[in-house]
Amino acid sequence: MLTLFKLELEKLLRAKSFYLSFIMLIGFVVLMLWGFYTYAARKTGGQAVEQFKYTYESKQYFNGLTFALYSVLFSFTLLLPIFVSMSAGSQIAGESRGGTLRMICTRPISRASLVLAKFLVTALHAGLLLTFFIGLNLLVGLIFVGWGSLELYPGPLNLVDEPGKIMRDEALIRFAYAALSGTWALLVVAALALLCSVIFNSPVQATVMTIAAYLTLYIVGRVEFFEHLRPYFFTTDMDFWRNVFKPDIPWQSLWHNACICGAYTTGLLLTTVIIFERKDIVT
User: Fold this and answer.
1) Rounded to an integer, what distance in angstroms lies between the CA atom of residue 102 and that of residue 107?
2) Rounded distance, CA 219 to CA 224, Å?
3) Is the pLDDT of residue 283 over 90?
4) pTM beyond 0.85
5) DSSP secondary structure string, 21-83?
6) 275 three-state secondary structure
7) CA–CA separation, 188 vs 221, rounded Å?
8) At what angle do helices 251-278 and 168-199 cross, to 10 degrees?
9) Is 10 helix (H, G, I), strand (E, B) or coil?
10) How does pLDDT run across 21-70, given as a tens digit for each residue?
C-alpha cells in the first residue's frame, strides 16, 4: 500500500495541473489584493489610507488578517472545489483514457487499494492547496497590509450576527484550524469526483459532472424556495469549517457537521470501490 501511494504521488508531482493549481491561487491572491486596494481608495474618495486601515465599520477593520479571511472564504466556495475535482476526477479516468488502467489492474494489487491510494494522494493535494493558500494570504497580508486583530461584523461573510473580535494570536490559530477543517470538508468533493472518475472514462467528463453536482446543490441550497431541502445537501455540511472564525467556536455543531462530512466521504468511497470492483475494463 505504501509503495502504491508513493507511485501515485510521483504521478501527481509530474502532472502539470498540480503546479497550475498553485499558480492560479497566486493569481487569485493578487486580484484580491488589487480589489482591496481599489475598495479602500474608493471609500476614501481616491485617497487610500495607509495599510488599507479604513472602512465604514471600524478604522482598524482592514488589516492583513481580514484580507486573508475574505480571500479564503471567497475562494473556498468555488475555486478550491474546482481544483480538487480536477485532481480527483482524473485519477481513474485518466488511467483509462491513457490506456494504462487495464495494465495496472493486472498487477497483484487489489482494486480497493488502488482507489484508496489515489484518494489519499488527492486528499494530500487538497491539504497542500488549502494550507499553501492560507499561508500565502497571511504572508501577503503581513507584507502589504499589516496585521491586527480580526474584527468581525454582520455582512456578506455571514459569520456573525453582531460585532465581535478575535485577537491576533488567537486568529492565527483559527487559520490553522481552517486549514484542517477546510481540507476535511473538501474530501467530500474529492470522494465524489473519484466516484465520477470510475463511472466515466473521460477525466473531463468526470470533472464536469462533479462540478455540476456541487454547484447545483450549492446554488439550489441558497435559493429561498428550496430552504427546506438545504439540510439534506452535502454542500450545507461542508460549510462547517467557517465556524472556526466565530468569536466563540460552536464545537458541538462543528464536530456534528464534520462527522456528517466524514460519513459522506466514507459512503462515496465505498460506492466507488464497489463499482470499480465490478467494472469491466476493456481498454
Assistant:
1) 9
2) 10
3) no
4) yes
5) HHHHHHHHHHHHHHHHHHHHHHHTTT-PPGGG---SS-TT--SHHHHHHHHHHHHHHHHHHHH
6) helix
7) 17
8) 20
9) helix
10) 899 999 999 888 887 767 655 654 544 444 444 444 455 566 788 888 88
